Amino acid sequence: MSVSLGITHSAPLHSTCVLRLRYRPGTIPAKYTLHTVMVHDGNDKGGHYYSYIRPNPEGDWFKFNDASVTRATSKEAIEDNFGDDEEDEKMRTNFSNAYMLFYVKDDVITEELVPVTKKDIPGHLLARFQQEEQEEQEEKEAKTSGKTAGIEEVSLSKSLAITHEDAEAGGTHGRMEEEDISMPWLHSEMTHLDASKLLAGSMLLAGSTTNGAFLVRKRTTAVEANTYALTVVWKGKPTHHLIARNSSGNMTIRNGSRTVYGSRTTDIGSLIAELAATPGSGETGFWPVALTEYVDTNGTVVKMSASQ
After folding, report:
1. What is the C-alpha to C-alpha distance for residues 184 and 75, in angstroms, rounded to an integer?
2. 263: number of CA atoms within 13 Å, CB side?
3. d(CA 103, CA 14)
4. Tens digits of per-residue pLDDT, 207-251?
């Protein structure tokens, strides 16, 4: 059994809740444990939705953000999702708001939250997991043999551990044979990891920690060919977003099959110029951060100009 309650001033890990329709006076109140925090990041015009879930009541929190699942702290899951009290939206620094909580009743928690076994996972997902594990193993072996340099997790916080040599090596990833002068932020196809290393490493050398720093990479061999991926720094770390055309031929930013931001533009250059003038709403959706500077194919951080 689970119930949903909206956040007001606090989100306790354990909550005592009396359901008057089910419990007669004098009975023991039911106790619940917080299981899920559903978050909206944006404003009333649009934004992005994701969830924090704690599958094991004694274990870690996990952030479920479309296709990405990462570990999270209780602070990230709870304390960071109360939005901002600043009335002027332009002055706000936190747009994350929890809008629904899910609690699980303590006396049935062991029945409801059972371990997931392989037989519970669809076959196509198992195959995908195995492929990802194989790719990760190949990357680790390449690093061990000295074929690549960098870090597994990229962060622009003080804990970022990357050397000058690492950043210079990362700067060669995705370099095109002939640079497109009109779109110097456009790179050839590369992995999420290589894009993160290139963006973070170049910014480190430039002494920049700017939200909105970005690069765009081509996706020529992906399942959805002739699309793009936008790698942009948001909340201090690189994030990745699919760019593809909708049925009308307009450029959109998507997470899976869901459109996060829709534009009236029909080419990648016009879309980037539009995003450089945000945050704001598009034809559909909301984009939370202006594209302020980019990393070119030489690994140099360059400020965006009106002509770009």
Report:
1. 39
2. 24
3. 9
4. 777 788 999 999 876 556 668 999 998 887 888 888 988 888 888
The residue type of 237 is K
Q: Alpha-carbon distance 13 to 103, whole Å?
A: 9
Short-list 221, 143, 217, 205, CA closest to 171: 205
Instruction: Using the structure block, give the residue that is written with the tokens 């990802």.
Output: 132
Record the tokens describing residue 45, joined without a space. 């015009």
The amino acid that residue 285 corresponds to is G
- Taking a C-beta distance cutoff of 8 angstroms, is the pair 241, 251 a contact? no
Q: Where are the alpha helices (H) located in 21-104, listed in sequence order?
A: 74
Domain ranges of the chain: 2-112, 164-303
Angle at 30 between CA 27 and CA 32, to 5 degrees: 170
Residue type, 145: S
Residues contacting 146, CB < 8 A, separation 6+: none
For domain 164-303, give the fold.
SHC Adaptor Protein (3.30.505)
Phi, psi of 175 (to 5 degrees): -70, 130
